[in-house]
Amino acid sequence: MLTNKVFMKKTKRGNILKIVREHYLRDDIWCGSEACRKCTQGENGILLDELPEPVSELFPFSHYLLLDTNVILYQMDLLEESAVRNVIILNTVLDEVKHRSALVYKRLRAVLASPGKKFYTFVNEHHKDTYAERMPGESANDRNDRMIRNAALWYEQHLNSAQGKKAKPRPRIVLLSDDADNRSKAVQLGLNACSASEYMKAAKQEYAHLVDKISQRDAVGESKDPLFPSHLTATQIHQGIKNATLMQGAFLASRENFLEGYVRVEGVEKPVLIQGRLNLNRAVDGDVVAIEMLPEREWKAPSDVVLVDEQNDPGDMIEPDPTFNEKAQAEREPTGRVVGIIKRKWRQYCGILLPSHIPGSTRHIFVPAERKIPRIRIETRQAATLLSQRIIVAIDQWPRHSRYPQGHFVRALGPIGSKETENEVILLEHDVPHARFSEDVLACLPQLPWVITEEDLKSRVDLRALTICSVDPPGCTDIDDALHARRLPNGNIEVGVHIADVSHFIRPGNAMDREAASRATTVYLVDNRIDMVPELLSSNLCSLRGGEERFAFSCVWELDDEAKIKHVKFHKSVIKSKSALTYEQAQLIIDDAKQQNDVAISLRLLNKLAKVLKQRRTDNGALVLASPEIRFQVDSETHDPIDVKAKQMLETNSMVEEFMLLANVSVAEKIEQEFPECAMLRRHPCPPQNNYEPLIKAAKHQGFDIITTSGKQLATSLDEAVKPENPYFNTMLRILATRCMMQAVYFISGTLQRDEFFHYGLAAPIYTHFTSPIRRYADIIVHRLLAACVGADSTYPELLDKRLNSNLCNNLNYRNRMAQYAGRASVALHTHLFFRNRSEDEQAYILFIRKNALQVLVPKYGFEGTIYVTGRNNEEIKTGVRFVYDEEEQTQRCGDVVFRAFDPVTVRLSLDSTNVQHEKLVFELVEPYIEGFSVPRTASSGDTEVQPKRKGDPTPAKSKKKSKNVK
What we know:
This protein is an alpha+beta fold. It has 23 helices and 38 strands. A 5-stranded parallel beta sheet has the order 5-4-3-6-7. α6 (180-188) links the parallel β6 and β7. α3 (91-100) runs antiparallel to α4 (102-112) and α17 packs across α18.
C-alpha cells in the first residue's frame, strides 16, 4: 500500500516549497512474539517469549512491555537490568530517542543487540494498521503519542486474535509511559498503562531492588519553601543574551571550596567568579549556564580558605554561607550569579553512601569521589550492603526546595579501597572508554595467520635489509617507532624514522575507525593499559617488534654532519627491525666502544646527530622543562607496588625524542603545504605573562632573575639559574616553569591564522603528531593526509571536512586531557597502596612558602605535598609552637629556624586513611627539628609500621598528596 507524506518547507529566500514523499505501508510485518500463530516469522528468529514471567504485581498476568520515548530517555539504567525483558520498541520511539539523545540511543542500540534481553523493534511506521497521519493542528509529539497508543492497541487485539483455534493463555500489553496525559488516553482505550515508577514499586520481592534504579526526575519534594532563586525560562535566557544583559558559558566548580566556581565566557579574557550558594543557584560542574554580572561594588575576591561540605545529612535546611574574607579592591574579580541553566552536563558519578542517622531510612546522602560535584540525595533499600561499596549514582533533578540534587542508584562497583574497584573508579571518573571491543570492531581485524604478500610489496619500498631498531621503555609491547642511520657514499648520513602503518589496518568510517576516533588515545595506568585499538593490532600486527616483518610509514632524511636537512622523502614501506631495545640497553651499546656491529654504529650516529638537533632547538628558544615523574615496580602476580623511584632519563631518551620531533615537524610542513585548509596540526600557545608570577617570585627570592618575554629568554634564564650547593635547585625551577605553561592542543590549519600555529615549548613554527598512531588517533588522521600527499592512498570527503575535523579535534583534546588526569590518579592510588602500613623519612625541598604552609617536593618519589604550619585562621596548630610568615621575604620563621623556598628538609611520609574515599599522603617535618612540631627521626623509617591516622589524633603536619600538574 502506498501513501504520500506532504511537507511544507520554507527556503532561505522565503519561498514555500511543497514536498511530497512516498510512504509504503505493509500488512506482513512480524509482531515478534512466539505466542503469535498468525504472522510470518522474521529473519532473526523469535525474540519475545510466548508467556513471559511478570515482574510487577501491578499486572500479575503474562505481558510484554511497550515503552514510550520518555521512559527510554530517563529510565535507561532500569531498562539495562537483566530482569527487564520481553520489551517492544516502536520505530517511532527509536527515531525520537535518536533525535533527542545520541548517548541514550547508543545505549538502547546495545540493549537491542543483546539476544538475552529480548527487546524487539516493531516497524510501526510502515504497518498499515498502526500508521497514523498527523492531523491538522496536531503537534509532532502528540502525533507520536497517538502512534504509540495505536500500536499498543493493535498488539493487544492482534495477540488476542492470533491464538489459533485453541484458546490458550496469551501475553497482554502493558504500556509504560511517564506522560500522565498519554497514560490517561491509553486507559480510555482499554489499555493497561502505568508509569515506570508505579510499575517497579509493585515489583515482586525478588525484583524489589530495581526500585532504586528509578529516575527521580518527577519526584515532588515535601518542603514548599524554595531555598534557591528560580531559573529563567529558555525564552528569557535567549532574550537576555540577545540584549547583552546576560552572558553564557561553562561553569567550572572549585575543587577546594564547594561554595565557589567560575564561568568562562567566550570573548571575555578572565573567567567570571561565582561565589555563595544562592549565586551558584544549583549549577553543577560542566553545566552551560546563563549568568548576570553583579555591580562592581559587589565584586569579590576568590577565597583562600579550603571549604568542604562535611555534614552527614543536614536535611534541607541551608545555613548561612561562611563570611568570605574581604580583600582589597585591587584583588577583586568580575563577579556574577547564575540565573538559568542552558544545558546540563550531568553524567554518572562514582562515590560512597553516607550512613543515615535515621535507622531503617531509605533516604541517603551520596558523596561523589570528585570534590567538584555536590552531594546527591538518593533513595535505596540496599543501604546495609552499599555502605561498604563504591557505587554509581545519576542526578535526575535539582528542585528549588532541595539543598542537594536528587538522583538514583545505578550500580555497585565493588568494595571501597580494593585496587580493582579504585581502578574502575579512575576510569569512570575520567570518562575513559574501557569496555571490551564490540563484535563489530573485532570483525574489522585481519584474519590470522597474517602474511605480507607479493602484492603488498609492489606498493611499498622494501627496507627489510636496513639496520633498523626500536628503542622504548622496558616492557613496551605497542612499539610505534623504529630508527636507522647509515653513512652514504657522498659522506652525508641517511636517517629514517619508521612508524607503524596503523592506517593500513584501520580504514576510514568502519567500526574500528569510529571506535578509535571515540577513544582518541591509549590510556596508561600504573598496572594496566587501555588500548585505543584491539590488542591484535597494538601489540602484534602493528607493533614494530624485533625480527618480524611489518608495514611502516617511513620518513627518511639525508643530513650532513651538522644535522642540516639536504633532502626528505616519505613513503609506505616494509621493514624488519633488527632489535627491540630498551633505553638502558641502547645506552649500554652506545657506551661500549668494543661493540662495532651495525646496530651500534647506527645508534652512535643517531645519538651524535640528536645532540646537534637538541642544541639547535635550545638555541632557537625551545624549553627544557621538568616534571616529577615516578616509576613503580609491581609484583608480577598481585600487581601491587613493591618499590617506587623517580624516573631516570638517559641520553637515549633524548635521542629518540629528537628524531620523533624532527619527523613531526617535517610531516607538518608537508601536509600543511598540500592541504592548507584541513591539515591536523598541534599548537602550544604562549602563556600570558601573569602565569609566570610564581616562577619569577620564587627565583627572585633566590637571587635569580627569570626573563619571560620570549621563550628564548626564558630558556636562557633557566639555564643560568644554578646553585652548585643545591644540585636539585635548577630541576625545581623547571618544574615550576612547567606549571606556568598552557595546554598544547590539536587544531585544523584552516581555522587559525598562520602565526597561531606556533608551538611555544618546542619553538617550532609548525608541528603535528605523526609518530604514535598505535596510541593516538590524531596520528592516524595525519598518516591519511600524508598518504594522500605522496599518492600512497586516496582522500575521502570526511578527511577534508574542516568543520567535522574541528569537532574531532575537540574530542581528541578532551580525551588526551582525561587520559593525563587518569594516569596521575593511578599514580596517586599506587602511592597510597605503597605507603599502607609503612612510613619513610626522606630528603625533600621546599617548593613554595605559603601563609599557613610549606609546600615540599620529595625528589626520590616525585611526591609533592603540604606541611601545614598554622590553622585556617592562622592559629597555632600545636600549643606553644608559633610560625611567623613574612610575605615580602617569602619566609616562615619558628624561633631560630627560618624556612625559604628551595631549602632542603627531611620529611616523614605516611598514609592517612581516615577518609575512606579520599586517602591522603601525610607529610610531617623531621628536620630541621622544632620541639613540639617536628617528629623524631626513626632508626629505620622504611620498616616502621604506622597505624592509619584517625580523627582526633594529634598530627602536627598533614597534607594531601597533590597530583603532578604538568600543563
